[in-house]
Write a structure and sequence with these properties.
Elements (H helix, E strand, L loop, with lengths): L3 H20 L8 H9 L3 H13 L3 H13 L3 H13 L7 H13 L3 H13 L7 H11 L6 H14 L2 H30 L2
Helix pairs in contact: 1-3, 2-3, 3-4, 4-5, 5-6, 6-7, 7-8, 8-9, 8-10
Length: 196
């Protein structure tokens, strides 16, 4: 059974696709061939946009191929989309370990959907050992998004019923650790960008 979040994302996907096309600077009227040429020449934004085009066309194996190329070049949304492909087996063989690798990369770079999905993985024990403290912490990180606030709150409420008070305290501490790690990564990237 699909979660409400998955249903919402299914309805929002065409809008998200157009937004991604606009944000990546790719022309939505551009043909697949033009876009493919840019992607084949190593343009990470074009690789991501091409992956999205193939996903909309439900050609999931081509979508995963192009998401992987963009993800390897650091495109955060491509990392999240690729992780979803591995998690669900869309266009690639289902592989929770690979999905978690990409969820984590995207989550650590601030992708809220990846943060939420990483929390789900820990909550359900999919690809990792079930860990309510880690799940709760990733849900807290994802809760900063208005898009996910209601879903996260519902999941946290369910989770708190299964956690001890000590686990909740540990989860809140872990949340602060994750926030500090994310902030340190952001500062490090900013410093590298500013270096001559």
């Amino acid at each position: 059974m699909k979660s409400n979040l998955h249903k919402l994302l299914g309805k929002l996907f065409p809008l998200l696709f157009l937004t991604a096309i606009i944000l990546t600077g790719c022309n939505p009227e551009q043909s697949n061939e033009e876009l493919k040429k840019k992607a084949e020449n190593g343009d990470a934004k074009a690789q991501f946009a091409l992956g999205d085009k193939y996903a909309v066309e439900k050609n999931f194996s081509e979508a995963a191929k192009w998401y992987e190329k963009a993800a390897e070049q650091g495109v955060v949304d491509a990392q999240n989309n690729l992780s979803g492909a591995y998690f669900d087996g869309r266009g690639v063989e289902k592989n929770y370990a690979e999905a978690l690798k990409w969820f984590r990369k995207a989550a650590e770079q601030g992708n809220v959907l990846a943060q939420y999905n990483l929390g789900n993985a820990y909550y359900n024990g999919k690809g990792v050992e079930k860990d309510y403290v880690e799940a709760y912490a990733w849900y807290n990180i994802a809760a900063t998004s208005q898009l996910l606030a209601a879903s996260v709150k519902n999941r946290q409420d369910d989770l708190e019923k299964e956690m001890s008070p000590d686990q909740i305290v540990a989860a809140k501490k872990r949340t602060e650790e994750l926030k500090a790690e994310n902030e340190a990564r952001t500062v490090g990237k900013t410093q590298k960008t500013l270096e001559p």
